[in-house]
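Co-fold these.
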Amino acid sequence: MNSTKELTIGFVGNPNCGKTTLFNAYTGANLKVANWPGVTVEKKEGAMRLHDETYRLVDLPGTYSLTSYTMEETVTRQYILSDDVDVIVDVADASALERNLYLTLQLIELGKPVVLALNMMDIVQERGMEIDLHRLPEMLGIPCVPVSARRRTGLEILIHTVAHHQDKAQGEKIIHHHDLETSRHKDVEEHHKYYAMVYTDEIEDKIDEIGERLKNAYPELDHLRWYAIKILENDQEIRERYPLDFSDILDQDYEKEIINQKFGFIEEIMAECVANRTKKAESTDRTDRILTHPVFGLPVFLLIMGLVFFLTFTVGDWLKGYFEVALEWMTEQAAAVLSAVGAGEMLISLITNGIIAGVGGILTFLPNIFILFLALAFLEDSGYMSRVAYVMDGIMGRIGLSGRAFLPMLLGFGCTVPAVMASRVLENPRDRLKTILITPFMSCSARLPIYVMFSELFFGDMAMLAAFSMYVLGLAMAILSAYVIKLADKGKETNMLLIELPEYKTPNAHTIYIYVSEKVKDYLSKAGTTIFVASILMWAVMNFGVHGFTSDMDQSFGAAIGKMLVPVFAPAGLGYWQIILALISGIAAKEVVVSSCSVLFGIGNVTTQTGMANLSALLGSMGFGAANAYALMVFCLLYVPCMAAVATIKRETGSWKWTGAMAAFQLVTAWVMAFLVFRIGSMFL
Amino acid sequence: MRLYEGQKGSTLQVVHMDLPLQTERRLEVLGMLEGTKITVVNRKKRGAMIIKIRGTRFAVGESITKSIEVKEA
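Predicted complex below.
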């Protein structure tokens, strides 16, 4: 078998059927990931070789049906119908065969070669369930291959089957749909010859009639039966594409009837082909008794989240420390090498303060990102993540967010960058945008030094309380924003919890590896490029003035901008150009606000006792008191997050428009809140 | 009775669904139609539930469980 053309295999299946695991088992991490033309649905493509043949594998979006109600469905069916696909591999979760077969029947109806991959056979066996692998292909009329993507069994056999099934063997009578044996339909033998799924006489007559008319009007059209069924189902897209008059045939809604008859046939298949179904799923039920318990479900979830948080930030920050040391060493080395070769002051500054500081700063987040996604992959692959939506549904639902949005919000207390990335656990794009919008309000750890310094300077014994109040205020702002959006959304209620809960299983190392490495690569490449440009820009603003390059920050454009903005910030108690400049520099990274203050006010060792006393005295002489300090803390809490976070938001929303709108929203919120706090605070402090 | 009133462990049969078209269609392709049997696996006070349809578990929100008319199977 030496075909010149490589075979293209389309992988189709329900969400959670292990399709991606199977796909990865063949292609490894060597994927081309892009979007389907015109839509934001991800398209994954890979290649593999077996016995000197090359196969092109395309992973289609997970879908339950081939109607045209969602983007995933439309993309999937259009691609399958195109000439690009030679063979369809329908991946089914064999442990939930009944539901998976619905898509299988629709795929068979398309009339292209289909091979059913019965995935998760290991789980089927574990549970003592048995599937009749001789009867099942007889009833469906297609090859059925047992595989386990996790254990990597049956993989080669599946591809063999695909290679041999590409020219669908026709002519044999393939099925026995018992309910229809009494049929008096004129072509019943003919139908049974080619189609697994044969409907009642009434429907078959109509399918024939529609098919006949389509054939006359569009002689070139392939897959006539499928189009006829779609028209009988009143599929809008197909009706519009072939606008013939079928009003005499479509005298009522046949869609439900067609679905019902398909599930009727599936029940028959299940009864004949699957034994010992009752024993299944007991272990999942036992686990769920605790994990989704009406009372204990919540504390268990909080405990698990606490652990994720601890690992990400405690262990992550510990590793991050080493990265930072390495970065410092690199900066020193670079500076030494550069000055040794006689590079100018400006170039040294650009490379060390601009590029290494900016891009290197991104690299230091790597341990956090890595650990976070390791933990998420673990939760996702074990099947727990889907349960979170259920456990948190009531609480988050009240502010119009999906239950899963809790996770990014919690992570926001550690660092906005991984938190925004974690919003990927949300399926609905609208929910993701909402979550990304409010996540930066969760006070990240980089903002803590600002609170510590200013609350110690101005609030004495109440310092702890003042700093802590920032966290509460941030949370309150996040909830308030979500609530306002919910009210504005009234009428188009999108939050209808409906999600499949897969069986629990032991997480698979390979799946986790692929998941984590994809996220890490993504983070480095996408955020990295944006950050590279942004760090050069920030460096230029801070190091260039009207007289060109300057190492004196108060001669820079930044300082000029700060002075210009004094009237804008004055009403909020922040009308000091040094403070404004420190805030601008804080966009590079929030903790920079502290170091900038020390530079701008000319006070070394700002974190020591004497340094603080000096700064306090200096600020006091400028009329900057406790109310100003609190307003500054509030502003730092709420205004635009750091460059790395903004770049991540851009990456995750895929839109500068949204990123800009969010930044504007945060700036306005920060100013308004600082203004209110300052005005009210001035009355008491 | 409505689905949300179903007790944990009980098996019910769908009589009628009173949902937005989009949601109803999503449920239909999951195999939940009039006449389908549903098992209540777990439930929360406000009406969110974990149910089993044709061997698969789903989490459904109260807005859905309150809109589905069921009877004892």
